[in-house]
Amino acid sequence: MGFYPDKALYKCEYADFVSGLASLDIGPVCEHDKHRYQLRHDVDHDLDHALSMAIIEHDNGIRGSYYVLHTAPYYNKPGSIDTFKQIQSLGHEIGLHNNTLTQSIKTRKRPGLILNDELKHLRGNGIRIYGTASHGDRDCRLKGYINYEIFDICKPKYRDWSEQSNKVRKVNMHKYKLNYETYFVFNHYIGDTGSRWRITEFDEWHPDFLSLPKHDNPLKAIDDAKKLDNKIQISTHPCWWRFK
Ligand SMILES: [Zn+2]
Q1: 11-240 architecture in CATH?
Q2: What are phi and psi of 188, to 5 degrees?
Q3: Distance from Cα 228 to the centre of ligand 1, integer Å
Q4: Residues with beta carbon < 5 A to ion ligand 1?
Q5: 155 half-sphere exposure, CB direction, 13 A CA radius
Q6: Residue 1 has what pLDDT?
Q7: pLDDT reported for residue 232
Q8: What would the pLDDT profile of 126-135 be if each residue is shown by its tens digit?
């Protein structure tokens, strides 16, 4: 049994992975000051898979954070709010998967207005939102910006503000009652992005990090991470996994 998320993992295997997390001091990202490990899920395309993950984690007594993408096709479909609520009712956090800079560049609408509208929509429907996770849109890679750059306190640690982010008016996240952005609350990150597991330091979070050694087995990567005296974020993307 492998842990490659792009090789047709089934529900029982995700359950194996999650049961391997059960002994950790782990919680949702909004509780990053209370737990050494944070469990994060960027819900890029597949909300059904996110719900499957949320149920498995709940069955294992684990809570995580699910960031819903306001530019994804599922976002405004009938029933999506109910699914967000269902995930929330299982004890998980729902956050915003922030693609506002991309949307602002495309529509010329101010990022603060886009953010305000999405938060109003979610909160007005009973979803509690405490934080954001910046989405790596295709345009981010093409134009060299990061969505979290809409926030005045979220300057990339390895370079200056991007040219694209300089063109928009930055906002103070606390004015929107947001407590955190995921990329700024950990020291090390273990994730399945690109379908292979790797552990990185935040300061290595730049395009070259793709050349860093990757791990075949997430639980092995987590074992390595246990030796580090640091805050660790574990990220799995629902769209990389299959469920029965
Ligand atoms: Zn994303």
Answers
A1: Alpha-Beta Barrel (3.20)
A2: -125, 155
A3: 27
A4: 42, 44, 135
A5: 8
A6: 39
A7: 86
A8: 999 999 999 9
